[in-house]
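Hey, resending since the last one bounced:
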Amino acid sequence: MLFSLAQFSDQLPALNLFRYLTFRAGASVVTAMVVCFLFGPAIIQWLKVKQGKGQPIRQDGPQGHLITKQGTPTMGGVMMLLAIGVATLLWSDLSNRYVWVVLLVTLGYGFIGFLDDYLKVTRRSSGGLAGRIKLIAEIAIAAGAAIWITDISSPNLSGMLAVPFFKDLLINLGVFYVPFAVFIMAGASNAVNLTDGLDGLAIVPVIIAAGVFVAIAYLIGNTVFANYLQVHYVVGAGELAIFCGAVVGAGLGFLWFNAPPAMVFMGDTGSLAMGGALGSVAVVTKHEIVLGLVGGLFVLETISVIVQVVSFKLTGKRVFRMAPLHHHYEEKGWAESTIVIRFWIIAMILAIAGLATLKLR
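The structure tokens again:
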């Protein structure tokens, strides 16, 4: 929106500042954070009034959560979605279709999560929306986004999978690209959802991953830097640095209220939306595989659940004391803060490794 003011820079040279992607990305971070700080307390108070007893706690989860987490409101993702929407619309070039793709995926997944949280709260059950219905809705949104991305991508990149560490290697997935992109978006969404089990555990790795993709989007959307780094130049993808900046700012603002002991949980409203945001940006920027490394913590949490389920069905034995992985360490007696901070450290290490792929060609 404010980007359009740059056309009047002839009359007022200061308006030329709105042309610079770096300025707008930084402003997006600050704007999203400020929106959370301004509206967060009112949103939390509204959620407390509407939800009463807060988020229903899983009976099959760690027993300590029935005491420590009881009464905390959920749906805090509404705060982040508001902040991301305002910051993105305010600072992005709204003629860029990639911006609309990732924003609509984020809001769409957030709506699915909102319905799930609403049913949990109103029914006073941890069940929520039926798993099959949720998955179908996630696939439908991701499929629509994948087809749209394929349609607006450059012909030389449409339907292609870029492989990190190889400067010229592109794999033409053809008709399989859409299912692959759906897997990335829906998979990332559910992976973040599985990780969201302790105060601050999911949001900081989301902030870290979004920060990495601020850099990736900016670099691969700039022909000079893309050529220097020998990565595939994606026309228009640079504008997603503003969206990712909004995710970073919204995450920081939400963390203010989610820091232990949490005043609010993001719920599926936030976790599904944040995962969908990261997945859709990875698809647009042709860094789907890199997302698996940058978001490796989410991958590990998801794998722990898969291994646990498969092992129990095949052998009747559990590999972990409880899944996802963070609950395993809770059952081993680790303090919640210890688990969270150590997982943050792992997320940071993986993010650095993901950034290194830009240069190692």
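The two ends are 37 Å apart (CA to CA).

Sorry for the duplicate.
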